[in-house]
Specification:
It is rod-shaped and about 135 Å long. With 425 residues, it is α+β, with helices and mostly antiparallel strands. The two termini are 52 Å apart. It is built from 12 helices and 5 strands. A 5-stranded mixed sheet has the order 1-2-3-5-4, covered by helices on one side. Helix 11 links the parallel strand 1 and strand 2 (355-365). Among the domains are: 2-149, no CATH class; 295-425, 2-Layer Sandwich (Heat Shock Protein 90), CATH 3.30.565.10. The protein has helices at 2-8, 23-47, 58-71, 79-96, 98-101, 104-120, 124-147, 162-249, 254-280, 299-308, 330-350, 390-401; strands at residues 312-318, 355-365, 368-377, 405-410, 416-424.
């Protein structure tokens, strides 16, 4: 219960309401407006004869109006000091000129000071004590005036005595006015606190969105780098091997040299086509890519390139029921294609192997399908053929992005093994 009341009265919140720019200009105009209202109200009461028995000098009455209005200039900068000062001024004015404190204009000035303190105090616990103390002083002063009030009017047949009626009306009026402004100030503070929290959340979302955009750009750069590495490494490797073979048999076996040169032509055209499709994705245009993305259907042509370069490669496919190779999404097919491409390029450049095998498998686990490719070779690493390792890193990253698993490393029986399994819906 205690925590509920503390939360309701906002005394358990450390948020500080910020001052607006040029607050003193606005509050100066507000103080002037309230002074005009208080003067108009006082003169209106005077014209109705409500102040006929008030013997206080007019200049002193105006002083009682000016003092609290001037204090309102600091109502947002020093809210607790302002409400304490205006409460003291209210009590002093009531002791000297009780009739003046009954006019609506000056009552609204004091009530506005209490509202400002509730809505603008920075330390909520201290504000609760100060505002509560001011309200206690005001109710004590009202009780004091009611206790010593004289009622000289002739008795009339009423349901309740005149003193009791005056007490009830006075207490209800003060409770409604003072309690209402305190509640209004708390509601305004809570609404602004909620708005500030929403603005902070919006700024956080903007920062996170910018970070996600940056991460997306970085991921796209990594993807393009991996694709370029795979394309260039594969085709340049194949072209180099075929060019060397053509050079060795150019004089003795012209037909074999012609076949090797034809393979170089195919590899160069394929490299240009793939790089054009890849780099074309960077252009800000709505035109579709002219070259299709390689996938499982292109595995045969990929294997043929390596066979023409002198590497014996066996290709085998094991389809489950379901799925089959035709059920594999393009992204998964591209990942498998790039895996085979990188693995065979590594075999050709960094291994003594003369033969390799490529097996693709497809199956289902629970409610998801999976596609797997395994590349094995019969060689060992060349002593001077160590690469940078970027190809294997890119292979692992590609598999991780698709939520798959990869096993890459040497086999106990000799040779090297690359196995990648990718799930898909």
């Amino acid at each position: 219960m205690r925590d509920t009341w503390r939360h309701t009265l906002t005394v358990d919140d450390s948020w500080v309401r910020p001052l607006p720019a040029r607050w003193w200009r606005v509050d100066g105009l507000v103080a002037l407006l309230w002074f005009v209202v208080a003067v108009a109200s006082t003169e209106g009461y005077r014209s109705l004869g409500a102040l006929r028995q008030d013997h206080t000098a007019v200049w002193l009455q105006y002083l009682f109006l000016v003092v609290p209005c001037v204090a309102l200039v600091l109502r947002r900068r020093f809210p607790l000091s302002t409400v304490t000062f205006t409460t003291a001024a209210w009590v002093v004015t009531g002791q000297i000129d009780a009739k003046l404190t009954l006019t609506l204009g000056i009552q609204f000035v004091y009530i506005f000071a209490i509202y400002s303190a509730t809505a603008w105090c920075r330390t909520r616990v201290r504000g609760a004590w100060v505002i509560g103390g001011c309200l206690l002083v005001l109710f004590g002063w009202v009780a004091y005036t009611l206790l010593f009030e004289r009622y000289d009017a002739p008795p009339v047949p009423n349901a309740i005595p005149e003193w009791l009626g005056a007490t009830i009306v006075t207490i209800l009026t003060n409770v409604i006015y003072l309690g209402g402004v305190v509640l209004l100030g708390i509601l305004e503070w809570r609404n602004l606190r909620r708005r500030s929290h929403l603005e902070d959340q919006a700024r956080t979302i903007d920062v996170q969105a910018a970070e996600l955009r940056r991460q997306a750009v970085d991921a796209e750069r990594l993807r393009i780098a991996r694709e370029l590495h795979d394309v260039v490494a594969h085709h340049v490797s194949v072209i180099g091997v075929q060019a060397g073979a053509a050079r060795r048999v150019l004089d003795k076996q012209p037909e074999a040299a012609r076949d090797a040169l034809a393979g170089i032509e195919r590899s160069s055209r394929s490299a240009v086509s793939e790089m054009r499709a890849l780099l074309g994705s960077l252009r800000p245009t709505n035109e579709p890519d002219r070259a299709p993305t390689p996938g499982l259907a292109d595995m045969g042509a990929l294997i043929a390139d390596y066979r023409s370069a002198g590497l014996t490669v066996d290709l085998d496919t094991v389809d489950g029921l379901p799925p089959t190779a035709s059920d594999v999404p393009p992204g998964v097919g591209l990942a498998i294609y790039r895996t085979v491409q990188e693995a065979l390029a590594n075999v050709q450049r960094h291994s003594t192997a003369t033969a390799a095998s490529v097996v693709t498998r497809f199956g289902r686990h629970a409610d998801r399908g999976w596609a797997e490719v395994e590349i094995l070779d019969n060689g060992s690493a060349r002593p001077a053929g160590a690469g940078t390792g970027l190809g294997l890193i890119g292979m692992r990253e590609r598999v991780a992005v698709l939520g798959g698993e990869a096993e890459i490393g040497p086999r106990e029986a000799g040779g090297f093994r690359v196995r990648v399994r990718l799930p898909f819906d």
